[in-house]
């Protein structure tokens, strides 16, 4: 049946008054998920989107087959050694989910077993079996006890990130009757594997309680509860397996407690009391706890304190403005510090007992590097991950003494991929206040810089989360059709250090949006593309960016792809009963208490600022069970766009059985990405 036009949401005006300001929300009724009218509206939107994109069905299938054809479907990760086993994940052609496995390690093993044949393989968990008959499946915790006898794992079949925790006996293969619903990510085992620590959430989806569970016993004990609604709790076991760490954090303040892993019933010991604005984390290293902190150190420093009597912080690595220290990882004889400087990630190595250090060196001008899969404490070899806009994900083992890097595996890209056919560039935009904003660009070699190329500009810009240069198989379907791909490293992210983040949050949030517009204008000015051939893309908080630039500079873009977009932030942040709201006040401000914050947020909120103007083509993609950015934000946004500026082309696509990350199976995810790419190519005239 042909649909005559897009669905027009009914208007049921609802008043909201704060700080003397009354707002009329015509589409607030869409916030009621249980209302059949809401589901009917979302389904009508999906039907309209299906019809409006029906002409792209062939292209979608072509792009899906390109992604599938370039991916080695039967594959495995590089095994990581832990105790007497090598652990790895493998995939099988035609199956949606990974299979978690291990094989026994020989005392003489120095290199991971890389062949497909793995004698003695044990399948610890098969995601395909767990997901059988389910529309959605996600694994939260996957945690093997130090003695290798027990596996704690948690599953989500709805996409709402509320997991059910179970325990499996890896000797007998039996899944125990032990079962805990509504747990969060994270867990930690005691040294002897008899006790498991886990986390539960409150009604606002905030992880706030740490529990102690004795295997085979149902009477769990509450270990720690965080009453301050700004704070989340986490739990982990140190790499040394000596301490359980209870990490309590708000957006800007931290507090850490530890429990000896061999005495799991001991009271948690406090490392340092919380001090507003001071962030710190710890890592156990022999007789000391290493402390990464920002106490008098904007870009962070590393100190240490005694394990036996935590107190004074002794400086180990001083603060260096412009070099943001992001983490410190301890091994028995070395420390590895993850950092970023000049918009690039890096790794620094320091031997135990020395203050001398060296930085690992990499050949490309743009890249991303970090530690990956290093469960062993007693080692002088670490595993790192490396990628760039043209280099597929690569795994290296690095000898910290000789500095020799051994490539263990590079992600296969089938179909004759040659990185020499592509080029990557770093360019800079100048924001209105004179700030230089980095842009990472990749294009097929020979792409003409005469304004004729179509382009896609990606952005995020919140929570100090950096979008570093990365490789994507799916992106090749754009590059090989002549599309230029660029990342705008806007303020609010962490690419240029802590001040880069500080200048894009709270009452400076608008810098995130104006930086992105400046990046778009720079791409046009440098003749990469034109506004008529430029699409913007961003998701979650990057979806807020998409909604803001749609209002701020609609003429700068031909299209906007907003994924799970946070486009009604003022409504959400005003409601402390919603998931995550209270914990978000230190990122966005508290509009309940501050009239200034209220007015500032209202000035940039995409939903509040829809006006009768010519908007670019917009595709909003969301999920019904998303607990991070609720489905109704993009649903309301699209409804208001249609109501206020009816001449535009706006599409809403809702996954009715998924969460924040979209479809869970890899083939489903590829189909989703093929849908997005086909829409982008259509807008760019490159279909």
Please outline what is shown here.
This protein is an alpha+beta fold.
Write the layout of secondary structure elements.
Blueprint: E1 14-18, E2 21-25, H1 36-52, H2 57-70, E3 75-76, E4 80-82, E5 85-91, E6 99-104, E7 122-126, H3 127-130, E8 138-144, E9 150-156, E10 163-169, E11 175-189, E12 195-201, E13 207-214, E14 221-225, E15 232-237, E16 243-249, E17 254-260, E18 269-272, E19 280-285, E20 288-293, E21 301-306, E22 314-317, E23 323-330, E24 334-341, E25 344-351, E26 357-359, E27 368-371, E28 381-387, E29 394-399, E30 405-410, E31 422-430, E32 436-444, E33 455-459, H4 476-479, E34 484-488, H5 498-502, H6 510-525, E35 534-539, H7 541-552, E36 559-563, H8 569-573, H9 581-588, H10 595-604, E37 617-623, H11 632-644, E38 650-655, H12 666-684
Parallel strand pairs: 33-34, 33-35, 35-36, 36-37, 37-38
Antiparallel strand pairs: 1-2, 3-5, 4-5, 5-6, 6-7, 8-9, 9-10, 10-11, 11-12, 12-13, 13-14, 15-16, 16-17, 17-18, 19-20, 20-21, 21-22, 23-24, 24-25, 25-26, 27-28, 28-29, 29-30, 31-32, 32-34
Helix pairs in contact: 2-12, 6-7
Considering the chains and any ligands shown, give keywords for the structure.
8-stranded mixed β-sheet; 687 residues; single chain; 7-stranded antiparallel β-sheet; alpha+beta; globular
Rg over CA atoms, rounded to whole Å, is: 25 Å
In percent, how much strand structure appears in the residues? 25-35%
Q: Structural class, please?
A: alpha+beta
Helix content: 10-25%
How many separate helices? 12
Span between termini: 26 Å
Shape: globular
The main sheet orders its strands as 31-32-34-33-35-36-37-38
DSSP strand tally: 38
Mean pLDDT over all positions: 96
The low-confidence parts are none
**How would a crystallographer describe the biggest sheet?**
8 strands, mixed
Write down the oligomeric state.
single chain
């Amino acid at each position: 049946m042909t649909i005559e036009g897009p669905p027009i949401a009914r208007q049921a005006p609802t008043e909201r008054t704060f700080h003397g300001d009354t707002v009329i929300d015509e589409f607030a009724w869409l916030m009621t998920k249980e209302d059949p009218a809401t589901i009917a509206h979302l389904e009508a939107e999906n039907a309209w989107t299906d019809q409006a994109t029906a002409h792209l069905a062939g292209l979608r299938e072509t792009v899906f087959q390109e992604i599938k054809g370039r991916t080695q479907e039967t594959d495995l990760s590089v095994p990581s050694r832990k105790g007497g086993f090598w652990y790895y994940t493998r995939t099988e052609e035609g199956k949606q989910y990974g299979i978690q496995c291990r094989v026994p390690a020989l005392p003489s093993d120095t290199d991971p077993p890389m062949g497909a044949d793995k004698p003695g393989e044990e399948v610890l968990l098969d995601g395909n079996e767990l997901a059988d008959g389910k529309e959605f499946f996600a694994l939260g915790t996957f945690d093997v006890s130090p003695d290798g006898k027990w596996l704690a794992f948690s599953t989500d079949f709805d996409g709402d990130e509320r997991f059910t925790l179970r325990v499996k006996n890896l000797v007998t293969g039996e899944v125990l009757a032990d079962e805990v619903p509504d747990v969060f990510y994270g867990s930690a085992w005691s040294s002897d594997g008899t006790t498991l620590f886990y986390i539960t959430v409150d009604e606002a989806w905030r992880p706030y309680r740490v529990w102690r569970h004795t295997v085979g016993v149902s009477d769990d004990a509450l270990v720690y509860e965080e009453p301050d609604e700004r704070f989340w709790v986490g739990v982990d076991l140190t790499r040394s397996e000596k301490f359980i760490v209870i990490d309590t954090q708000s957006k800007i303040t931290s507090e850490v407690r530890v429990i000896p892993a061999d005495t799991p019933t001991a009271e948690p010991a406090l490392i340092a009391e919380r001090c507003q604005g001071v962030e710190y984390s710890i890592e156990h290293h022999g007789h000391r706890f290493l402390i990464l902190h920002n106490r008098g150190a904007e870009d962070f420093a590393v100190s240490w304190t005694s394990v036996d009597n935590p107190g004074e912080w002794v400086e180990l690595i001083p603060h260096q403005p412009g070099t943001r220290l992001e983490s410190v990882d301890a091994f028995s004889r070395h420390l590895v510090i993850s950092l970023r400087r000049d918009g690039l990630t890096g790794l620094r190595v320091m031997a135990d007992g020395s203050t001398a250090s060296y930085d690992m060196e990499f050949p490309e001008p743009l890249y991303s590097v970090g530690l990956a899969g290093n469960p062993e404490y007693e080692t002088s070899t670490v595993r790192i991950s490396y990628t760039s806009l043209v280099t597929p994900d690569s795994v290296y083992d690095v000898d910290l003494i000789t500095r020799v890097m051994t490539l263990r595996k590079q992600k296969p890209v089938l179909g004759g991929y040659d990185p020499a056919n592509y080029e990557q560039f770093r360019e800079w935009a100048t924001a209105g206040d004179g700030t230089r904003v980095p842009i990472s660009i990749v294009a097929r070699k020979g792409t003409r810089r005469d304004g004729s190329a179509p382009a896609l500009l990606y952005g995020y810009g919140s929570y100090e989360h950096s979008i570093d240069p990365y490789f994507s198989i799916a992106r090749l379907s754009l590059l090989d059709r002549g599309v230029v791909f660029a990342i705008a490293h806007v303020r609010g992210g962490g690419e240029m250090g802590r001040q880069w983040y500080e200048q894009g949050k709270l009452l400076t949030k608008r810098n995130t949006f104006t930086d992105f517009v400046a990046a778009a204008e720079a791409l046009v000015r440098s003749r990469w593309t034109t506004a008529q051939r430029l699409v913007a893309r961003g998701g979650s908080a990057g979806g807020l960016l998409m909604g803001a630039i749609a209002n701020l500079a609609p003429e700068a873009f031909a299209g906007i792809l907003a994924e799970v977009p946070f486009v009604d932030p003022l409504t959400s942040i005003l409601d402390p009963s919603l998931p995550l709201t209270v914990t978000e006040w230190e990122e966005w401000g508290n509009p309940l208490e501050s009239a200034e914050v209220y007015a500032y947020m209202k000035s940039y909120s995409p939903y509040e600022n829809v006006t009768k103007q010519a908007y670019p083509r917009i595709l909003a993609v969301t999920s019904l069970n998303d607990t991070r950015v609720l489905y109704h934000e993009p649903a309301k946004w699209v409804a208001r766009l249609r109501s206020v500026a009816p001449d535009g082309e706006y599409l809403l696509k809702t996954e009715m059985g998924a969460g924040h990350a979209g479809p869970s199976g890899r083939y489903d995810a590829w189909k989703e990405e093929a849908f997005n790419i086909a829409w982008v190519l259509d807008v760019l005239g490159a279909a």
